[in-house]
Specification:
This protein is an alpha+beta fold and 197 residues long. It has 2 domains: 2-23 and 172-196, no CATH class; 31-162, no CATH class. Helices cover 22% and strands 31% of the residues. The protein has helices at residues 2-22, 175-196; strands at 31-37, 40-41, 49-56, 61-68, 74-77, 84-88, 93-94, 106-108, 115-121, 130-136, 144-146, 152-155, 161-162. Helix 1 (2-22) packs across helix 2 (175-196). The chain is globular. The protein starts with a helix and ends with a helix.
Length: 197
Amino acid sequence: MAKKNTLKKAAVGFGAAAASIYAAPELSASIVTLNFNPTSIAYSSTSNLTSVLAKTNGGATAGGFSQYNDSFGKTMSWNNGFASWTQVNAGDVLNTSNFTGTNSLLYFSTGQGGTVYIGFRATAANGGGVGWFGMDLGGTEGDIVFNAGNGGQYGNQRESVRVGGDRVVPELGSAYGVGLLAMGAIGIGRRRRQAKK
């Protein structure tokens, strides 16, 4: 009997906590994936600048930049395609309230490999929301590949996005969100009744 009550309390407590986290500001829907043109940039032994365009899966422009992949490094050159950008970490939740970036170069060494994540804010003309994308740096003389590490996302109505993880932050009206809220409501009701005893 004690085990059953403990499990109920744990489930109810989890529901209340999950619901309160889930109801955080800006964690809503209309998050779209990003596509890049070109999708990758080959290494060049001489200075070689390529223009890169990021578009949403609906065809709207999210931004763009210029990319070097040569003997001088793997440099992302600012060209006013985004309002700002910065390197971010997998798991970060980005939104218009907490995002701070720069409008300067982002530089990686010639031999650097692995996936890095870039967070950005779109210009007002492109919606002003925030997004992220993964970039495989390719190592020494390797290709740079965009949309690495679970791709890229953009909150096209200023929604929050989670870097490198979930494809979409769940919508509050989804079955998952309603379930969490229901569990939380049950937990709060039980706690209030117990407090009155």
